[in-house]
């Protein structure tokens, strides 16, 4: 098959071999329609384990969300992660944003907070990556200096991390990861990771965000990167079905639940639940970005994304099929941040599991949620922090 003359800037990880990719998109905050000159692929060393279907043709992905704690992480967060990993034995894990919170007061404490929640994968030699959420830079107010680019540089030092290098596209955790067939090196499934940002700027066009859910949004240049990377991947390998992960939900996550754009009531939801096959719970609002990113229409256009999953709203767990694309949540994993409250505080702490089978027609076969309450974990509402952080690996 003909190799395209260009591929997009953001890195692709293919079967354990990373390629730094440039061209296709304008750097930094350049307008989305800016003209750029494509540049060729520049190979780099692989950052971690190989993503490949097992000899039985199966592959599992586990999504953890909102581990969100300091350097003395609630020990039950790690117990839950370990139990899920041991039970599911995934080939890949994503911590989908709000990996840590603002408790750390030094750069070392930031690293310790991250280390606590990535060691469940590292110690089991499971390839993993993360996206950033709105809370990951909160420690900057304490003078830690740990920006998302610095955190990305840190996590890429782990043996089994497969995040790609940072570049000038908005955000620091955008990656395309490709999973190779068990029968060769051709990728047969993909994973998209997007950085959905933090908070909306204080003003745009001289106007503030009063009355809006003033979170950040996936930017046009990120949508353009996804579109061009998707096209380049199709040119090289054919259409590769994929899942996409980002922290802050899309407007369409809200629209799907209510089956409408401008009303939000129980009668509308009853119809939507039937139309879209919605399962799971919604216990709080859908805290979207201030503006609609247009990402959903890009996914419809490209036709390769089978499901787009977020976190952010810790006590929402629902998913459904919205015009051919699954939209859903991974439940909040961390025992540190807010939950349901009262005696039920931790009842929805959990993870989401995705099942793939390269011998099935569409490869992606199912998804389900798993919860701490079903793993025999202590559900007392009071915090149970570690006595001390887990030790950092040698050289980190």
TrEMBL record:
Signal sequence segment: 1-26
Q: Which Gene3D superfamilies match?
A: 3.60.21.10
Ranges for the Calcineurin-like phosphoesterase domain? 59-315
Its protein name is Calcineurin-like phosphoesterase domain-containing protein
Alphabetical UniProt keywords: Signal
Q: Which organism is it from?
A: Paeniglutamicibacter psychrophenolicus
Against Pfam families, the record matches this protein to: Metallophos (PF00149)
Say yes or no: keyword Nucleus present.
Answer: no
Presence of keyword Glycosyltransferase? no
Q: Which domain of life is it from?
A: Bacteria
Which CDD domains does this one have? MPP_Dcr2
């Amino acid at each position: 098959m003909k190799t395209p003359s260009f591929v997009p800037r953001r890195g692709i990880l293919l079967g354990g071999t990373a390629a730094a990719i440039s061209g296709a998109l304008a750097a930094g905050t350049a307008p989305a329609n800016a003209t750029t000159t494509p540049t060729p692929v520049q190979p780099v060393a692989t950052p971690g384990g190989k993503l490949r279907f097992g000899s039985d043709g199966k592959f599992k992905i586990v999504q953890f969300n909102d581990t969100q704690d300091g350097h003395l992480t609630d020990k039950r967060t790690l117990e839950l992660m370990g139990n899920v990993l041991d039970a599911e034995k995934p080939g890949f894990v994503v911590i989908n944003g709000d990996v840590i919170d603002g408790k750390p007061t030094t750069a070392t404490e930031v690293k310790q907070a991250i280390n606590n929640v990535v060691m469940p994968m590292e110690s089991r030699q499971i390839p993993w990556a993360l996206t950033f959420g709105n809370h990951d830079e909160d420690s900057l107010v304490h003078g830690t200096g740990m920006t998302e680019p610095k955190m990305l540089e840190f996590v890429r030092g782990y043996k089994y991390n497969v995040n790609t290098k940072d570049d000038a596209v908005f955000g620091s955790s955008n990656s395309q990861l490709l999973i190779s067939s068990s029968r060769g090196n051709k990728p047969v499934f993909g994973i998209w990771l997007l950085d959905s940002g933090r908070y909306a700027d204080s003003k745009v066009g001289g106007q503030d965000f009063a009355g809006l859910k003033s979170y950040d949004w996936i930017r046009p240049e990120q949508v353009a990167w996804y579109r061009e990377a998707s096209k380049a991947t199709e040119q090289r390998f054919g259409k590769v079905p994929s899942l996409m992960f980002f922290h802050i939900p899309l407007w369409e996550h809200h629209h799907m639940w209510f089956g409408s754009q401008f009303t939000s009531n129980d009668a509308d939801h009853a119809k939507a639940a039937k139309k879209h096959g919605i399962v799971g719970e919604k216990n709080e609002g859908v805290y979207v970005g201030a503006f609609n990113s247009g990402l959903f229409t890009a996914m419809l256009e490209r036709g390769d994304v089978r499901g787009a999953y977020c976190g952010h709203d810790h006590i929402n767990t629902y998913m459904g099929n919205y015009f051919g694309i699954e939209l859903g949540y991974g439940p909040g994993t961390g025992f540190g941040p807010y939950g349901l409250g009262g005696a039920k505080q931790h009842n929805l702490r959990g993870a989401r599991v995705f099942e793939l089978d390269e011998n099935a027609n569409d490869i992606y076969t199912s998804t389900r949620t798993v919860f701490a309450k079903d793993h025999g974990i202590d559900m007392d509402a009071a915090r149970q922090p570690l006595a001390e952080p887990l030790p950092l690996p040698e050289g980190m």
